[in-house]
Amino acid sequence: MSKKYLFGLAIACLAIGACGEKENGVKNEEKTKVVTVSLGSKPKSLDPAMYNEIPSLSIVEQIYNTLFQIDENGKIAPELAESYEYITPTELVIKLKKGVKFHNGDELKASDVIFSLNRMVEKPATKVMLDVIESVEPLNDYEVKIKLKEPSAPLLYTLSYPLTAILNEKYTEEKNGNIATDAMGTGAFKYKSWGDGEKIQLVANEEYFGDKAKIDELIFRAIPENTSRLAALETGEVDIATIAPIDVQTVEGSSDLYAVSFPTTSTEYLTLNTAREPFNNKDYRKALNYAIDKQSIVDAVYLGKASVANTIVNPTVFGSDQKVGKIDYNPEVAKELLEKSGVKNKTIKIMSNDNPVRLQAAQIIQANLKEVGINAEIETVEWGTYLQMTAQGDFDVFIGGWVAGTSDSDIVLFPLLHSSYKGGAGNRANFENPEYDRLVELGRKSTESSERIEAYSKAQEILAEENPLVPLYYKNENMGLNKRIKNFVPVANTIHNYAAIEVQ
Q: Would the pTM count as exceeding 0.85?
């Protein structure tokens, strides 16, 4: 099966999870091949279109398929689609593969695609990506026509992201749309049990239309603490886990484990709530950017397995301009800007989810701000609360991350900062700038690469001046694996596909 090299959003960290072989009671003493992957947070839902967050999408990736995928060369390739053709710049015809079966035995039809796409346009997490769609209509049982409001350069990449996975219409309606803990797709693995979200079990789909899974069972376990995840990896309780940078050396020193470290499409940053004082003050926001010693975080927390961010758009992503936005650590300039801002004696709160690495970064930021006269308190909340409070605007500043899931600037610059997506839809900074909106809209609808690059560069220049977000660093993903795991191929958006892995 061709691996999905899908790159997106959102907003969170994947920690991954035990591989072993268990007797399955078969007389010839064949053994069930079981692999356990550790998630750093409990997934919120297995409904693909509900939440743009890595723990959920990591499991969605195994159960469902999308119309397209991104191949090893970063090019669009069909997945559920057989072929596609733009008959006009705003009309896309997609021909579906025949004989693809959902896990309940139903064959994939055009009606399922139409149902899924119409549903996505209504869901907050996917609306931001697909509101360019005007209508979807059937041409026959295996062909659909998508009409767009305007040309959309990122559309095919969007339709390769797990958020846009295709559902079975009949099954979803029978469940009244409540498929958060009862997933059913066309993927290489079938859903078995939810386990309160702490232990989610999947089994191989023997009727899969592509290359079938090489293992029999895939288990996802939520283990939030880095030390607990490492201990589970060392004892063989889990087989694959994301690990803290400080633990890479420990894993490399084990005779039973190995480590991989690879660049991602993500950026870690501070979101400033521009709807609140003093963050509605541009000089104050810029002062925060100058006050933070980002290189110290890279060195002390990530042990060099990250790089300082100049812009919110990761350098691996189309449209990133690393020549704009560079603000070097300079506490004296920060003090001058604070004086210019007129803000006096302001105590602020920095919110973080309960991720130890993020908390370490927050502590360095806290110390940096104290040096320029800002008293920063750190507020730690669990993952679900973090998502809810930041969506509601109930914060001063929060430290977070965004994965460019489609490896295109559109998936970063539009949902995170376009004024039409303020709040839970993505723009949690509540940023509003008409010229910025115009530029990212141009980047979305233009089909000329040079025009898109220029628009995105100018948009990033505005962000460097306005500072609604403070880019911090581009981090590597560090993973530990049991040496019995073979053929694991990591992907930059950290939403890995486990169908091809083998157990030896």
A: no
